[in-house]
C-alpha cells in the first residue's frame, strides 16, 4: 500500500440529528488523528433543571431532543418516580411500554428510510428518491406518519408528548382510541413486510470489530426496554443505580472529549447491542425476519445496526398490537388519570431522594438521575445520553476502518466514515454535557 | 337550497389601475352587464378568493355609468394583494352596503365638506355628485387636510374644484415640504374661517377616528345643529350583513345602519367616537 | 413558475420542529411539489451556495458564533422564518437567562466551562429581522402549512393575538382552573388548537404571550384559586423568559 | 295545547326512535360537573340532571367553524356558496338554552337573512327539558324570565317523577308523537300534577336572583355607562374570551379564507370570534375602538342587557350562568349586576316577587 496522506474533514455531518464533525488525518499511511467532534451549541439543560420541580422535569427534558422526546420523557419520569418512591400502576406501565415501542418504531423508520437508505441506494438524500424510488418514499412517509398518528392518539403528539407525566397519564385512551390505534398499527403491517423485503436487497458494507455491547437485561421473557438491569456481552450485570460506573466517563489524552468505557476500550449501545443481548426474547415474527436477512447474535458489524433496527421495528409493532389488545380486554381504568399541576394536585406524595431512570431509547440506554429535596425540587440533575456512550466506540471503529480502506479515494473514505457514524443513528442535539468540544486549528 | 347566499360575490373586472400616492391606488371596476347602483357614501366588500374580503368605499359618483372607482390604501393582506393587480384582472364584489349620505335631505341646503386623509375617498363620491347636480344645492365649501403634500389624493380633481366659482375649496397639510405653498396646520384650523349660515348648513365629515372629536367641536362652535353634522364611521367589518359583530357600536351596526350617521345619533351611542 | 428555494437551519434546539416536517406524511410530497428544498442538514447531504428565497430557522441564538451565522443567513435570503418556539420567542433555552451565565456554565461543565462560550439566549427576531413567525414547541403542522401557503401567496401571516382559551373553549375542554390547576392559556397566543389541554395537560405558554397580556390579572386569578404566584412566574419564564427583552407596545 | 305522556322506562326507546332518522345529541357528563352536548346512540349515555353544558347548543346552529363557500380561481374569481346542514335532534334543552336559540333565530332571520344559519335551524328538531329547581348559584334565569318555557321547541318534557309529560308545540313535534307510538295522551290528573310542579317552581324561583325588577334593567344600564364597575373588570379580565364563547346568544364571527396548497382552490369559512379578543375592533391605522378590557366587558354586558331591547325587545342574557362559570377571573354576571344596582341606588330586595309575568315575556 502506498504511503498516502488523507485529510478528511467533514464539517456538519449531515443526516444525523444534531451537529458533528469528523476529523481524520493520515500522514504517510499512518493514522494521526481520528475524531468525532460535537459542535452542537451547549444548551445547559441540567443547569436549567436545578430549582425546578420534578413534576416539570419531564416537560423540560423532553425538549433536549425532539427525535427521542418520548424516551427522555420516560427516563425522566422514571428517575423522578424513583427519587420519590412512587410506584406506577400496571396500566401505566403497559401504556409506557406502548409509548416506548411507538418511539422506537417511529425513530427507526425515520432512520432507516430517510437517513440510511439514501446511502445504500447511492444518492445524496431522500429527495432524489422521490423520483427514482417514489413508492419507497411514499411508503416511508406513510409509515412515519402512521407512527406519529398513533402517538397523537396515545399522548397527543410524538414530538414532546403531552399526556405522559410523573404518576401516569393525564388523558387515558378511550375504547375508541384503542381501536383507532389498533387500526393504524394493523394497517402498518403490509408496509412493514415490504420494508423487510427492501432490506433483504440492500447491501451493507462489510466491516467487523469486536466490542462490548451494553443493554438492559432481565430475567423474564420480555425484550427489556423500559425496565431491567444493565448487562453486557462481556458478562457484566449491574443495577441501574450504578449508572456512573456503567458509563464510566473518562478523559483521553489525544482529545478533550470525555469518553465512556466499561470492561474494555469502548462499548456500544443501541439496537444492535439489544439484539446481541436479547435476540431470543424478540417476537417470533421479528426472529423470523432476522433469519431472513441473516442477522445473528453476536453481530459485530456496526453498519448492521440499521438491520437490527429493522428487526426491532417488527418486534415493536407486534408487541404494541399485543399490548393494546390486552388493554382492550382488561379495559382502561379512567380513574387512574392524573390531574396535572405543579404538585400534581397533591395526589402524589413527595420525599427527598435520588432517583435513576434507565430506559432503552432508539439509540441505546438513556440515563436520567435527579437528586430532589423534600419538596420535590431538583438539586442536581444528570443526563447521560446513548450517543455519548457510543462516541468512543465510533472512534475506535473509525480507527480500525480507516487503515482498511486507505486504498480507496478520499470521497469513498469520507462516505464510508459518514455512513459508519450514521449507522449509529447519533443524536447529537441532546448535547446535555456528554462531550467537551475541541476546536482544532484548521 | 336555491335561496341566494348573502356571501355570493359578483365578478368585477378591473378596467384600470392608477397609482395615486406611494400608498394608494385607484381601481376602476366594472360589473359586466350591470351598474353598481350605489349611493354616495356606500361601500362594497371587495374579495380575492384565498386572501379575504375588505370593505372599501365607493369613491366615484353614482352619476358615473358603466364602472365605479375604489381608492385603496395598502395596509395589509387584501389591500396588499389588490395593489398587485392590473387592468383585466378580476375581483369579487359584494354590495353596495350601508346607508350612504342622505342626498334627498341635503338637497336645497348649504354643504360644508370636511375631509381628513383617506376621508376624501368616500366624500369624493358625494362631492362629485353635488357638483354634477350643482343647481340642487346651496353654497358648497370643501375643506381638505392631510399629513403632508405627498399624501394628497386626486390632485387634478382638486385643482378642478379649486377653479370652480360655485365651490369654495381650501386645503391644509400637517407638515409642509419645500414645494408646498398652501396652508400648514390641522384641518380644524380651517373651520373658523368659513362663513356659513348654520341654520341651513349640513357639515359632512369623513376622516381618521381621532379627527372627529376636534372637528365636531369646531362645528358646534359654529352653531351647526348636531343633526346636521354627518360623519362616516369606519369600523372593522367582516360580513357587511349586520351579523358578525365587528362593526357594532352601541346598538348599531355600521355596515347596515351606517357608515354614515348624524352626530346627534352618534353622540347618543357610547364609545362611538 | 420557478419554485422557491427553501432551506432549513438550526441553532440551539432539539430539532423536533424539523422532525415535524417528516410527520406530514404524503402531504410532504405535495409541499415538495410547491417548493424546492435545497438545504436541510438533518435529512440532506446536499448543500447550497447561492441565494435562498426562504430560510426556516429553528433554535435560539446562544453563542457568539451563532450571531454571526444568523446574520450571514439573513443576508443570503429574501425571507426568513422563525420556526418553532426556540426561534420565535427563545423558548426553553431562555430559562438559561434565569441564571448568571458563569454560574450555569460552571454548574454543568465544571472546570471545563471555558470550552463553552455562551451568550444570553436570544430569539431570532432579537438579532435579525424576521418575516414570518411560527411559534410552538413543537410547531403545529396545520400552522406550518398555513404559513407556507401565506409565503407562497406573498401574504403576511401574523401569529394569532387571541388566547389559547379561545380554542380550548371551542374544543369544549373542562377548564383546568376548575380542577384547581394554573394554566397559561389565558395569556398565551392561540394557534395550536389548544393542543396540550386537549390532552389533559396545562398550557405552558410555548407560543408566546399575547400582545397585551393582563399579567397582573393572571396573578390575581392564582390567588383566587389559592395557587402560588411563584408558580405562574415559574411557568411564564419556562418559554417566555427571552420575551422580557422585547419592549412590548 | 296538547300534552302527552312518556313512561320513564321508554326514554331509551324514544332516543332510539329519533336516532334512526337523524343524529341525536344530548347532554353527556364529562366529569367534574361539566357537561357537553354530544352525539348519543342510546338514552343511557345522556344525562338529564345537568347544569348548563360547557358550550351551549348554538354549536349546532352556527358551528365553531363553518364553510361558507368553496372556490377555484383557475378561471377567475369563481366561488360556490356552500350551505351545510344535517338533520339533528337536540335532546334535553333547558329553557335558558331555548331562549338562546330564540335570540340567534332573531338575529339570523333579520334581513339580510343568513341562509347558512336558517338551513341548519330548519334541520334541527328541539326537545326541551324543564328544570324543576336551580341548577347552581350562577343561574339567573328568573331575572330574565327564562326559568319557565316560552316556546322555541318542538316538544317540551317535564319530569313528573315516574313519567314525563310532553308539550307538543309544532307539527314536527306532533309527528314524533304519532310515529313513535311511545306516547299516551295526558289525563287531567297529569295536567294537575304539572300545575302543582309549576306552583312549586314559582316558590323556588320566587324572587329575582338579584335585587332589580326586570323592567328596570334598561334604565340601570342607561345610567351605568361611566360606572366604576367597568374599571374594576378592566383590572380583572384577562380577555380570554371564554365568557363570549360559552354564551348562548353570542354570535360574532370572523370570515377567513383558507387556500389549499395549490393556492387556486380552497374555502371561505367563518369561525367564532369574540369581542373580548384584542384584534376584534382594531382597524387599519392601528386604532382599537375597544382597547381596554373594561370597555370590552362593558360592551358585552350592554349587548346582553341594553342594546337588544330596542332591536329585538328582549334581553340577550338567557340567565344560564355560563359566563360566570367559565371565567377564571371569577367575574360573575350576578355580582356585576348587583354592583351596578348598588352604585345607582336601585336596589329592590323584593324584585320579582309580586310579578306574575313568569308565563309571558315582558314588553318594553
Ligand atoms: C366602511 C369602510 C370603508 C372603507 N373604505 C376604505 C377605502 O375606501 N379605502 C381604503 O383603503 N380603506 C378603506 N377602509 C379600510 C379597509 O377596509 C381596511 O384597510 C382593510 O379592510 C384592511 O384589509 P387588509 O386585508 O388589507 O388588512 P389586514 O391584513 O386584514 O389587516 C391590516 C389592518 O387592518 C385592520 N382591518 C382588517 N380588516 C378590517 C376591516 N374589515 N375594516 C377595517 N379595518 C380592518 C386590521 O385590524 C389591521 O390593523 C374602509 C373601511 C370601512 C369599514
Ligand atoms: S384550560 Fe387553560 S386554555 Fe383552557 S380555558 Fe382554561 S385557562 Fe384557558
Ligand atoms: S397549549 Fe400552550 S403549551 Fe401546548 S402547544 Fe399550545 S401554546 Fe404550547
Ligand atoms: S371569561 Fe372572564 S377573563 Fe375571560 S374574557 Fe370573559 S370576563 Fe374576561
Structural notes for this entry:
The complex is a heterotetramer of chains A (442), B (273), C (249) and D (364). By secondary structure, chain B is an alpha/beta fold. Helix content of chain B is 21%, strand content 30%. Chain B folds into two domains: 10-96, Elongation Factor Tu (Ef-tu), domain 3, CATH 2.40.30; 103-269, Rossmann fold (3-Layer(aba) Sandwich). Chain C has 249 residues and is α/β, with parallel strands linked by helices. Helix content of chain C is 35%, strand content 11%. Chain C has helices at residues 16-22, 27-34, 64-76, 85-89, 101-109, 141-153, 164-170, 195-198, 215-224, 229-240; strands at 5-10, 36-40, 52-58, 77-83, 132-134. The model of chain C has no long low-confidence stretch (mean pLDDT 85). Chain D has two domains: 2-204, no CATH class; 214-343, no CATH class. An eight-stranded mixed sheet of chain D has the order 3-2-6-7-8-9-1-10, with helices on both faces. The interface between A and C is large, with 67 and 66 residues. Bound molecules: flavin-adenine dinucleotide and iron/sulfur cluster (SF4) (3 copies). One iron/sulfur cluster sits between chains C (164-165, 168-169, 173, 175-177, 183, 185-186, 194, 197, 203) and D (240, 242, 328).
Summary tags:
heterotetramer, A: 442 residues, alpha+beta, Cytochrome-c3 Hydrogenase, chain B, four-stranded mixed beta sheet, three-stranded antiparallel beta sheet, globular, disordered C terminus, B: 273 residues, alpha/beta, Elongation Factor Tu (Ef-tu), domain 3, Rossmann fold, six-stranded antiparallel beta sheet, 7 helices, 15 strands, binds flavin-adenine dinucleotide, binds iron/sulfur cluster, flavin adenine dinucleotide binding (chain B), oxidoreductase activity (chain B)
Given as residue ranges, the uncertain stretches of chain B (5+ residues, pLDDT < 50) are none
Q: Helical proportion of chain B?
A: 10-25%
CATH class of the largest domain in chain B: Alpha Beta
% residues in beta strands of chain C = 5-15%
Number of strands of chain C: 5
Count the domains of chain B: 2
C-alpha-based Rg of chain B, rounded: 18 Å
Q: Helical residue percent of chain C?
A: 25-40%
Helix/strand/pairing class of chain B, anyone? alpha/beta
- CATH homologous superfamily identity of the largest domain in chain C: NADH:ubiquinone oxidoreductase-like, 20kDa subunit
Shape of chain C: globular
General form of chain B:
globular
Work out the helix count of chain B: 7
| CATH homology-level superfamily of the largest domain in chain B | Nucleotide-binding domain of ferredoxin-NADP reductase (FNR) module
Terminus-to-terminus distance of chain C:
40 Å
Bound molecules: flavin-adenine dinucleotide, iron/sulfur cluster
GO molecular function (chain C): iron-sulfur cluster binding; oxidoreductase activity
Organism (chain C): candidate division WOR-1 bacterium RIFCSPLOWO2_02_FULL_46_20
Keywords (chain C): Oxidoreductase
InterPro entries (chain C): Hydrogenase_assoc-protein, NADH_UbQ_OxRdtase-like_20kDa, NiFe_Hase_small_N_sf
Amino acid at each position: 500500500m502506498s504511503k498516502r496522506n488523507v485529510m478528511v474533514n467533514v464539517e456538519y455531518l449531515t443526516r444525523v440529528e444534531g451537529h458533528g464533525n469528523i476529523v481524520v488525518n493520515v500522514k504517510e499511511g499512518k493514522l494521526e488523528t481520528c475524531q468525532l467532534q460535537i459542535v452542537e451549541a451547549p444548551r445547559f439543560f441540567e443547569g436549567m433543571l436545578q430549582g425546578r420541580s420534578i413534576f416539570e422535569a419531564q416537560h423540560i427534558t423532553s425538549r433536549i431532543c425532539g427525535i427521542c422526546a418520548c424516551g427522555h420523557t420516560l427516563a425522566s419520569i422514571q428517575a423522578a418516580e424513583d427519587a420519590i418512591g412512587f410506584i406506577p400502576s400496571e396500566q401505566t406501565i403497559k401504556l409506557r411500554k406502548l409509548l416506548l415501542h411507538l418511539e422506537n418504531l417511529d425513530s427507526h423508520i425515520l432512520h432507516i428510510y430517510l437517513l440510511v437508505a439514501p446511502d445504500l441506494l447511492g444518492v445524496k438524500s431522500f429527495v432524489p428518491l422521490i423520483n427514482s424510488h417514489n413508492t419507497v418514499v411514499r411508503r416511508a412517509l406513510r409509515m412515519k406518519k402512521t407512527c406519529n398518528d398513533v402517538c397523537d392518539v396515545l399522548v397527543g403528539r410524538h414530538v414532546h408528548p403531552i399526556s405522559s407525566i410523573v404518576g401516569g397519564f393525564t388523558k387515558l385512551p378511550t375504547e375508541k382510541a384503542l381501536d383507532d390505534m389498533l387500526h393504524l398499527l394493523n394497517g402498518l403491517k403490509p408496509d412493514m413486510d415490504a420494508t423487510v423485503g427492501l432490506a433483504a436487497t440492500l447491501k451493507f458494507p462489510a466491516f467487523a470489530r469486536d466490542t462490548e455491547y451494553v443493554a438492559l437485561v432481565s430475567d423474564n421473557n420480555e425484550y427489556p426496554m423500559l425496565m431491567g438491569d444493565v448487562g453486557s456481552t462481556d458478562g457484566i450485570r449491574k443495577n441501574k443505580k450504578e449508572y456512573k460506573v456503567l458509563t464510566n466517563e473518562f478523559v483521553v489524552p489525544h482529545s478533550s472529549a470525555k469518553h465512556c468505557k466499561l470492561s474494555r476500550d469502548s462499548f456500544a449501545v443501541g439496537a444492535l447491542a439489544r439484539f446481541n443481548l436479547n435476540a431470543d426474547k424478540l417476537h417470533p415474527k421479528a426472529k423470523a425476519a432476522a433469519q431472513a436477512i441473516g442477522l445473528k447474535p453476536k453481530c459485530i458489524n456496526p453498519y448492521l445496526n440499521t438491520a437490527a433496527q429493522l428487526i426491532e421495528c417488527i418486534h415493536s409493532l407486534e408487541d404494541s398490537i399485543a399490548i393494546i389488545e390486552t388493554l382492550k380486554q382488561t379495559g382502561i381504568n379512567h380513574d387512574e388519570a392524573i390531574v396535572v399541576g405543579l404538585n400534581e394536585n397533591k395526589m402524589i406524595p413527595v420525599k427527598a431522594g435520588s432517583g435513576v431512570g434507565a430506559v432503552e431509547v432508539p439509540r441505546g440506554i438513556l440515563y436520567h438521575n435527579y437528586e430532589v429535596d423534600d419538596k420535590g425540587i431538583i438539586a442536581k440533575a444528570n443526563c447521560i445520553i446513548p450517543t455519548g456512550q457510543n462516541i468512543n466506540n465510533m472512534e475506535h471503529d473509525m480507527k480500525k476502518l480507516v487503515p482498511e480502506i486507505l486504498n480507496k479515494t478520499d470521497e469513498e473514505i469520507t462516505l464510508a466514515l459518514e455512513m459508519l457514524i450514521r449507522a449509529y443513528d447519533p443524536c447529537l442535539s441532546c448535547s446535555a454535557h456528554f462531550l467537551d468540544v475541541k476546536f482544532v486549528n484548521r | 337550497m336555491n335561496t341566494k347566499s348573502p356571501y355570493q360575490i359578483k365578478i368585477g373586472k378591473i378596467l384600470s389601475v392608477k397609482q395615486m400616492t406611494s400608498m394608494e391606488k385607484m381601481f376602476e371596476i366594472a360589473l359586466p352587464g350591470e351598474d353598481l347602483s350605489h349611493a354616495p357614501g356606500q361601500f362594497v366588500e371587495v374579495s380575492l378568493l384565498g386572501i379575504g374580503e375588505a370593505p372599501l368605499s365607493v369613491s366615484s359618483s353614482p352619476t358615473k355609468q358603466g364602472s365605479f372607482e375604489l381608492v385603496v390604501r395598502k395596509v395589509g393582506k387584501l389591500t396588499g394583494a389588490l395593489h398587485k393587480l392590473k387592468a383585466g384582472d378580476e375581483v369579487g364584489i359584494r354590495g353596495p352596503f350601508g346607508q350612504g349620505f342622505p342626498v334627498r335631505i341635503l338637497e336645497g341646503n348649504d354643504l360644508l365638506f370636511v375631509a381628513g386623509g383617506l376621508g376624501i375617498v368616500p366624500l369624493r363620491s358625494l362631492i362629485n355628485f353635488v357638483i354634477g347636480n350643482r343647481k340642487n344645492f346651496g353654497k358648497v365649501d370643501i375643506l381638505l387636510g392631510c399629513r403632508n403634500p405627498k399624501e394628497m389624493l386626486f390632485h387634478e380633481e382638486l385643482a378642478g374644484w379649486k377653479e370652480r366659482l360655485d365651490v369654495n375649496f381650501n386645503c391644509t397639510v400637517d407638515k409642509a415640504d419645500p414645494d408646498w405653498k398652501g396652508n400648514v396646520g390641522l384641518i380644524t384650523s380651517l373651520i373658523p374661517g368659513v362663513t356659513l349660515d348654520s341654520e341651513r348648513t349640513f357639515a359632512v365629515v369623513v376622516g381618521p377616528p381621532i379627527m372627529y372629536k376636534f372637528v365636531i367641536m369646531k362645528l358646534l362652535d359654529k352653531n351647526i345643529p348636531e343633526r346636521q353634522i354627518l360623519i362616516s364611521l369606519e369600523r372593522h367589518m367582516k360580513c357587511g350583513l349586520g351579523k358578525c359583530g365587528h362593526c357594532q357600536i352601541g346598538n348599531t351596526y355600521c355596515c347596515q345602519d351606517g357608515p354614515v350617521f348624524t352626530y346627534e345619533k352618534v353622540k347618543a351611542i357610547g364609545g362611538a367616537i | 413558475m420557478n419554485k422557491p428555494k427553501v432551506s432549513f437551519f438550526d441553532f440551539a434546539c432539539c430539532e423536533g420542529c424539523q422532525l415535524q416536517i417528516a410527520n406530514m406524511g404524503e402531504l410532504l410530497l405535495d409541499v415538495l411539489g410547491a417548493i424546492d428544498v435545497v438545504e436541510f442538514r438533518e435529512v440532506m447531504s446536499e448543500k447550497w451556495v447561492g441565494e435562498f428565497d426562504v430560510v426556516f430557522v429553528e433554535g435560539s441564538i446562544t453563542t457568539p458564533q451563532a450571531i454571526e451565522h444568523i446574520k450571514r443567513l439573513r443576508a443570503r435570503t429574501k425571507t426568513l422564518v422563525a420556526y418553532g418556539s426556540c426561534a420565535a420567542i427563545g423558548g426553553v433555552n431562555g430559562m438559561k437567562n434565569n441564571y448568571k451565565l458563569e454560574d450555569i456554565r460552571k454548574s454543568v461543565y465544571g472546570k471545563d466551562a471555558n470550552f463553552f462560550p455562551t451568550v444570553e439566549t436570544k430569539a431570532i427576531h432579537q438579532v435579525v429581522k424576521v418575516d414570518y413567525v411560527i411559534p410552538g414547541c413543537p410547531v403545529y403542522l396545520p400552522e406550518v402549512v398555513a404559513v407556507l401557503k401565506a409565503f407562497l401567496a406573498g401574504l403576511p401571516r401574523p401569529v394569532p393575538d387571541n388566547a389559547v382559551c379561545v380554542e380550548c373553549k371551542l374544543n369544549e375542554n373542562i377548564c383546568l382552573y376548575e380542577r384547581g390547576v394554573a394554566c397559561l392559556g389565558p395569556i398565551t397566543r392561540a394557534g395550536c388548537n389548544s393542543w396540550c389541554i386537549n390532552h389533559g395537560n396545562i398550557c405552558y405558554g410555548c407560543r408566546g404571550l399575547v400582545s397585551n397580556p393582563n399579567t397582573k390579572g393572571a396573578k390575581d386569578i392564582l390567588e383566587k384559586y389559592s395557587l402560588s404566584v411563584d408558580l405562574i412566574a415559574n411557568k411564564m419564564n419556562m418559554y417566555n423568559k427571552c420575551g422580557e427583552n422585547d419592549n412590548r407596545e | 295545547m296538547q300534552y302527552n305522556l312518556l313512561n320513564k322506562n321508554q326514554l331509551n326507546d324514544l332516543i332510539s326512535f329519533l336516532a334512526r332518522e337523524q343524529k341525536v345529541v344530548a347532554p353527556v357528563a364529562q366529569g367534574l360537573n361539566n357537561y357537553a352536548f354530544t352525539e348519543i346512540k342510546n338514552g343511557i349515555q345522556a344525562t338529564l340532571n345537568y347544569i348548563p353544558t360547557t358550550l351551549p347548543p348554538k354549536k349546532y346552529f352556527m358551528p365553531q367553524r363553518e364553510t361558507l363557500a368553496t372556490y377555484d380561481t383557475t378561471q377567475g374569481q369563481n366561488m360556490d356558496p356552500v350551505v351545510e346542514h344535517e338533520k339533528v335532534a337536540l335532546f334535553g334543552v333547558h329553557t335558558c338554552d331555548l331562549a338562546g336559540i330564540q335570540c340567534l333565530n332573531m338575529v339570523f332571520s333579520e334581513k339580510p337573512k343568513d341562509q347558512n344559519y336558517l338551513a341548519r335551524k330548519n334541520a334541527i328538531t328541539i326537545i326541551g327539558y324543564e328544570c324543576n329547581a336551580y341548577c347552581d348559584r350562577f343561574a339567573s334565569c328568573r331575572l330574565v324570565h327564562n326559568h319557565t318555557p316560552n316556546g322555541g321547541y318542538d316538544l317540551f318534557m317535564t319530569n313528573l317523577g315516574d313519567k314525563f309529560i310532553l308539550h307538543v308545540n309544532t307539527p314536527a313535534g306532533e309527528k314524533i308523537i304519532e310515529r313513535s307510538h311511545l306516547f299516551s295522551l295526558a289525563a287531567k290528573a297529569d295536567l294537575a300534577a304539572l300545575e302543582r310542579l309549576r306552583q312549586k317552581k314559582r316558590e323556588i324561583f320566587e324572587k329575582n336572583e338579584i335585587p332589580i325588577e326586570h323592567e328596570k334593567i334598561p334604565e340601570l344600564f342607561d345610567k351605568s355607562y361611566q360606572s366604576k364597575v367597568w374599571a374594576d373588570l378592566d383590572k380583572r379580565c384577562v380577555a380570554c374570551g371564554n365568557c363570549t364563547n360559552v354564551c348562548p346568544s353570542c354570535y360574532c364571527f370572523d370570515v377567513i379564507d383558507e387556500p389549499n396548497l395549490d393556492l387556486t382552490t380552497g374555502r371561505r369559512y367563518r369561525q367564532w370570534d369574540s369581542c373580548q379578543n384584542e384584534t376584534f375592533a382594531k382597524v387599519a391605522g392601528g386604532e382599537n375602538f375597544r382597547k381596554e378590557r373594561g370597555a370590552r366587558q362593558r360592551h358585552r354586558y350592554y349587548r346582553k342587557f341594553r342594546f337588544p331591547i330596542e332591536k329585538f325587545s328582549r334581553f340577550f342574557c338567557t340567565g344560564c350562568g355560563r359566563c360566570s362559570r367559565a371565567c377564571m377571573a371569577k367575574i360573575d354576571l350576578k355580582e356585576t349586576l348587583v354592583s351596578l344596582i348598588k352604585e345607582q341606588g336601585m336596589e329592590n330586595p323584593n324584585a320579582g316577587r309580586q310579578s306574575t309575568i313568569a308565563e309571558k315575556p315582558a314588553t318594553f
